[in-house]
Amino acid sequence: MRETLFISFLLLLATACNYGSGPGSAGFPPEKQLDSSMRTVFVPVPDHPGEPGDNIVYAASFALAWDELARILGSDPAGTDPLVRRLNAADIHEGAHAKEAYEVKASVTDDELRASAVFAKALPFAVPFSRLERGMLFDRKTKVRAFGMARYDGPQAAQMQLLYYSNDDLFVLRLTAGPERDEILLAKGFCDGVRLSVMTGRVEAAVERGKKAQAKGADGWKYVIGAEDEVYIPEIRFHLSTEYRELINKQVMVRGQTLHIIEAAQRTAFVLDEKGIILESESVVGSDSSANAAPPKLLHFDKPFLIMIREQQAKHPYFIMKVANTECMVKAEKK
């Protein structure tokens, strides 16, 4: 008897957006199947390569479903495919979610084994950011809808922190959102290459350099949102599904038994915009005497950048996206 594996996961993630029972009630766009003509790809682990120039999206849920499959089988599915080996070796998803934040299911019926992971989360900003009426130009090519802080606003600035700043094309900005105060890292200037694991490593190294600089009291103005600083962030909105064709129809071995993977699918809905529910604002903007004479920082995410989202106290992010093009952005309305 040939046993078959089904692996699927659903991720619904809304930043500054509330939703009801499904994507249609969340303001998500209609679901769209990824195809070879598009410039967005999903990767099940951050070490799996994407393609140059593509948006690359990772969420921890697929690896969680794979782990659940291994649990009910009593062993990791072994195979020669590089993606199978990466899934078995991956540990970045471990501890990325609090257990109550996701649901993993697995079932065995006759000759079918099915595993799925579902994760949904809303991350409202405590204070809504401002919609930029003129939008912004991304990569000097396309005008897209955007939000942020064009003029200094104390409550908005209080939910932002610069973790690293070298110049206007190389910096890491942290936003705090959601009732659990998850952190959203937006990192510009770290996106060379096709592996998210390499990019996040660069970001984490830069954040460590920033911590050391702040501890020494050096260049304090770099880590303060000043009165002349600007923050521009493109609106991102997508609802995409895909199949991992690298896994489908592949054979894997478990304890001497041959299994066939016939389904490996992912659906992700994601919204990042300026909206939010007023909950609380506990952050305080730091001050530094050197900030008065500091040049204005133009924190414009107008070139490829990285999004990393993780829970408080978690070591690893549960969502990573390299934003390389405007395919998942909202085009600005023509005036």
Main sheet overview: 7 strands, mixed
What is the structural class? mainly beta
Number of helices: 4
User: Can you write the helix and strand succession as a string?
Assistant: EEEEHHEEEEHEEEHEEEEEEE
Query: How much strand content do the residues show?
Result: 35-45%
Separation of the first and last Cα atoms: 63 Å
Radius of gyration: 21 Å
Spans of at least 5 consecutive residues whose pLDDT stays below 50 are 9-25, 276-292
Mean pLDDT value: 79
The strand count comes to 18
Please, how many domains?
Answer: 2
Overall shape: it is globular
Provide the helix percentage: 10-25%
Tell me what the structure shows:
The chain has two domains: 3-123 and 237-272, no CATH class; 131-233 and 280-323, Alpha-1-antitrypsin, domain 1 (Roll), CATH 2.30.39. 14% of the residues lie in helices and 39% in strands. The protein is built from four helices and 18 strands. The protein has helices spanning 61-73, 82-89, 154-157, 196-216, and strands at residues 3-15, 32-33, 40-43, 55-59, 102-109, 112-123, 130-138, 142-149, 160-167, 170-177, 182-188, 230-234, 236-243, 251-254, 257-272, 298-300, 305-310, 319-323. Strands 1, 2, 5, 6, 13, 14 and 15 form a seven-stranded mixed beta sheet that branches. A hairpin with a 3-residue loop joins β7 and β8 (142-149). The longest helix is centred in the middle third of the chain and has 21 residues, at 196-216. Pfam families: Serpin. Residues 253-325 form the Serpin domain. This is Serpin domain-containing protein. InterPro entries: Serpin_CS, Serpin_dom, Serpin_sf, Serpin_sf_1.
